[in-house]
């Protein structure tokens, strides 16, 4: 016998539409939380020195589709930004897309100026990317990918004090 989850009625912004999670849980404040096992955080598997922003989730919907966004409005429209689909027919597509978006943001974080926002560089960036690719391989039943290496940025040469050598 499957036990139904009890949901309180203290929702500050109740949703009355047809969208619900695969296990029957309705959105709370126009947001659906991922089910157990449908969210992956790098800090839990790679190490606690990795910022908590490096994660991705998949939301299983009651109609058999999967989303990379938990916001009800995004799911209703089918995209979270213009030209960026967030609802997929299969779980594997959603996992791959969620991972790809997180990896793209992680690579872009090398140019961020503040470390408090989760900036990744060098070996930490490589660890997060390899972890994410491994998650996709496990979740989609594919072969474990070869690890990648991310080179460290070149350090500026120290000034010699001789203008001709500094210029070269």
How would the blueprint of this fold be written?
Blueprint lengths: L38 E3 H4 L9 E3 L1 E2 L5 E2 L4 H6 L1 E3 L2 E2 L1 E2 L2 H18 L13 H19 L22 H5 L1
Antiparallel strand pairs: 1-2, 3-4, 4-7, 5-6
Helix pairs in contact: 3-4
Task: Give a short overview.
The chain contains five helices and seven strands; from the N terminus they run βαβββαβββααα. With 168 residues, the protein is of the alpha+beta class.
Explain how this protein is built.
The chain is 31% helix and 10% strand. By secondary structure, it is α+β, with helices and mostly antiparallel strands. The longest helix has 19 residues. The mean pLDDT is 87.
Global structural class: alpha+beta
List low-confidence stretches: none
Main sheet, how many strands, which sense, barrel? 3 strands, antiparallel
- Proportion in β-strands: 5-15%
- The strands making up the biggest β-sheet line up spatially as 3-4-7
Please write the string of helix (H) and strand (E) elements.
EHEEEHEEEHHH
Based on the model shown, name its key terms.
5 helices, alpha+beta, 168 residues
């Amino acid at each position: 016998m499957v036990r139904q989850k009890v949901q309180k009625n203290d929702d500050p912004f109740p949703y009355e539409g047809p969208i619900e999670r695969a296990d029957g849980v309705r959105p709370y404040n126009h947001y659906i939380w991922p089910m157990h096992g449908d969210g992956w955080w790098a800090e839990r598997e790679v190490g606690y020195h990795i910022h908590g922003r490096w994660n991705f989730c998949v939301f299983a919907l009651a109609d058999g589709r999967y989303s990379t966004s938990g916001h009800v409005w995004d799911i209703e429209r089918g995209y979270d930004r213009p030209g960026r689909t967030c609802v997929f027919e299969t779980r594997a597509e959603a996992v791959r897309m969620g991972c790809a978006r997180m990896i793209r943001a992680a690579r872009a974080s090398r140019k961020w100026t503040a470390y408090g926002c989760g900036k990744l560089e060098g070996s930490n960036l490589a660890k997060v990317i390899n972890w994410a690719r491994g998650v996709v391989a496990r979740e989609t039943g594919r072969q474990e990918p070869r690890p990648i290496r991310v080179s460290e940025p070149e350090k500026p040469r120290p000034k010699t004090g001789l203008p001709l050598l500094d210029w070269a």
